[in-house]
Design a protein that fits this description.
With about 190 residues, the chain is mostly beta strands. It has no helices and 13 strands. The chain has one domain (about 5-175): Immunoglobulin-like (Sandwich), CATH 2.60.40. Mean pLDDT is about 90; it is low at about 185-190.
Amino acid sequence: MPVLIAHPTTPSAHVHSVTAHVQFDRAAGLSLRFILTGELDELSIPSAGAVARSDRLWEHTCFEAFVGVEGGTRYLEFNLAPSRQWAGYGFSGYRQRDESWTAPTPRIEVVRTVATLEVNAQIPLEALRPLCPSRTLRLGLTAVIEARDRSLSYWALAHPPRQPDFHHADGFVLGLDVVAATASQPVADLP
């Protein structure tokens, strides 16, 4: 499973690890699973409720997937909170919102134990249509983790230089060959 790393300016003593699992299926879409392990009682994690759209989720504990295409500037952002709130945004270029794109509602499941928080989401295939017919998707998998003292730590597969910036193309390091995926053989764990 890919391991997210904390930005060096925002470590968290209460987070032991954040990992991600990705699958793509040409019939079902994009499956995401984020697993946070650590001292969960020291983190600010809202209780799961009904699936609902909400903005500004990145201000608190939330998991994110940025999905672009190889060599392109267009990308999508999906925010998934432990509360089961979600958001989806389209961009025509770096931080240039595309208001014409509307995200369909994902399926979100949350499982919490004493030391583990797991957030699973199924992003419908129709959500990825703005990126088609690209052969290769580029993903940036990220997390914002809020401690009980309201401090935030920023986690990603890769961080661009300087401050945390999940929108920066240097963070879209996970390649996903969508042509190779079939309805019966989804892409398995990615390195």
